[in-house]
Write a structure and sequence with these properties.
CATH topology: Glutaredoxin
Order of helices and strands: EEHEHHEHEHEEH
CATH superfamily: Glutaredoxin
Low-confidence stretches: none
Mean pLDDT: 94
Number of domains: 1
Largest sheet: 7 strands, mixed
Structural class: alpha/beta
Shape: globular
CATH class: Alpha Beta
Distance between the termini: 32 Å
Amino acid sequence: MSDQLPKIGSVAPDFTATASDGSQLSLRELLKRGSVALFFYPGDDTPGCNRQLSAVRDDLADFTAAHIQPFGVNPAGIESHAKYAAKFEFNFPLLTDPERAMASAYGALKENGKSIQRSVLGIARDGTIRFAVRGAPPPADVIAALEE
């Protein structure tokens, strides 16, 4: 387990995760279509998370224009993610990380090893980390770091 964010320029840890629509997504395959932004958030349908992910939803056209695929990530199950995405009309997938393997690999776990520390990671098409910030930075900051 690591509580340190990956260093800018380091190789992003590979992952395969289940999305809110039930599909299996792997970083390797996603990078063939563009850069990836991972938004690690503590819980489905909580005030801070609602604000953060709604900002991503509202700026999706900007992500798309920059060839960036955003994803919300937390340990909740597919059913919880699907309900949450429907309630807030999220137009991007939420990934389930029940074993917290992604959160651990990307330094998004709190010291207790269970709770998610709100973190945003941007991965360029070449598989390197280009953005790694705690908290909920504005989507424009993530996009600026990943624009090609």
